[in-house]
């Protein structure tokens, strides 16, 4: 007998900003049951979904496809580079074209902030849209899978946790979704560390965070370290002096990690710039949860698709 899916009071999942704690916890509970391998009912049998990606992806696209297949959906994969986008077709015309084929779920990635919300606003009433990452704004399912990974490692009571985020917060949609989720789930202490050129100012992203520019000091006693990728594709020239300097000041090494709590965990959304924000020794070491994050991506995306479309 299948357990009911989580209540989703939203037509689309575009951001974690403002999503109630109860909804987040319900989605995480459901994702946990999928992660444990139970209850893979065909709740999306007869439903067609499309991964509509206008930016590259490995983890997000493939895990959404696997998640949809495991729920019994028919899955289409749209890749802008091999589509009529190259002939000038707009994103909204593309969505309406695929909607006309009977597709009801869209998982959309776009380089422009707000582009996914705009597509959702112009989609048909029965269409459901999931933001798979837009610009530097939001990556809600990455935020959810990071919370699931942290919860599995450290328990559901986040109020006991000190969490440190390191690196390019300014250009990171993952950082924004993670910080929103951590705050909603009542994290005990949030620290952020990075060069001032890569930290956002005056947009509320760092609300409630203790901001430090010395990584060794920032690491003292933390329970989890969330490393971020340098988003060079979204960066103006000159924000980082050199990759060697960045690694010297903000790269996570095994020696530095000893300043964190002995059982601290290390996370990174991927893809990794090895030797820049994190060394091989840490990325592949016993405290790394990076591949656990990837595995949890499938379970979280099953929970989200079930809640929106099931
Ligand atoms: N973390 C993440 O979004 O990875 P991809 O770009 O490979 O999907």
Tally of domains: 2
Attached small molecules: phosphoric acid mono(formamide)ester
Calculate Rg over CA atoms.
19 Å
Examine the secondary-structure arrangement and name the CATH architecture of the largest domain.
3-Layer(aba) Sandwich
User: Average pLDDT value?
Assistant: 94
Instruction: Say how many strands there are.
Output: 9
Q: List the total number of helices.
A: 11
Measured as a percent range, the helix fraction is 25-40%
Secondary structure category: alpha/beta
Largest sheet: 5 strands, parallel
Q: Say what the CATH topology of the largest domain is.
A: Rossmann fold
At the fourth level of CATH, the homologous superfamily of the largest domain is Aspartate/ornithine carbamoyltransferase
Oligomer: single chain
What is the overall silhouette? globular
SSE series: HEHEHEHEHEHEEHEHHEHH
Strand content: 15-25%
Report, as a whole number of angstroms, the end-to-end distance: 16 Å
Strand order of the largest sheet: 7-6-5-8-9
């Amino acid at each position: 007998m299948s357990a009911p899916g989580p209540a989703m009071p939203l037509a689309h999942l575009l951001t974690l900003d403002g999503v109630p704690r109860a909804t987040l916890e319900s989605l995480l509970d459901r994702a946990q049951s999928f992660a444990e391998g139970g209850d893979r009912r065909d709740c999306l049998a007869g439903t067609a979904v499309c991964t509509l990606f206008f930016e590259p992806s490995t983890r997000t696209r493939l895990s959404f496809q696997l998640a949809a297949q495991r729920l019994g959906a028919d899955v289409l994969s749209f890749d802008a580079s091999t589509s009529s986008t190259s002939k000038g077709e707009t994103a909204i015309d593309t969505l309406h074209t695929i909607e006309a084929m009977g597709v009801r779920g869209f998982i959309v990635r776009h380089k422009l902030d707000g582009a996914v919300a705009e597509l959702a606003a112009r989609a048909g009433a029965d269409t459901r849209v999931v933001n798979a990452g837009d610009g530097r704004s939001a990556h809600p399912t990455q935020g959810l899978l990071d919370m699931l990974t942290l919860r599995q490692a450290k328990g559901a009571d986040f109020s006991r946790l000190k969490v440190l985020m390191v690196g390019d917060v300014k250009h990171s949609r993952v950082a924004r979704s993670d910080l929103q989720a951590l705050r909603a789930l009542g994290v005990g202490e949030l620290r952020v560390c990075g060069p001032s050129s890569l930290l956002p100012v005056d947009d509320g992203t760092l609300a409630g965070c203790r901001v430090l520019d010395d990584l060794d000091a920032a690491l003292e006693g933390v329970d989890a370290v969330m490393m971020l990728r340098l988003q060079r594709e979204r960066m103006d020239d000159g924000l980082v002096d050199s990759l060697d300097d960045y690694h010297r000041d903000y790269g996570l090494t095994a020696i530095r990690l000893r300043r964190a709590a002995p059982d601290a965990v290390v996370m990174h959304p991927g893809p990794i710039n090895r030797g820049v924000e994190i060394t091989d020794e840490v990325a592949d070491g016993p405290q790394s949860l990076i591949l656990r994050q990837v595995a949890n991506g499938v379970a979280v995306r099953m929970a989200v698709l079930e809640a929106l479309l099931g």
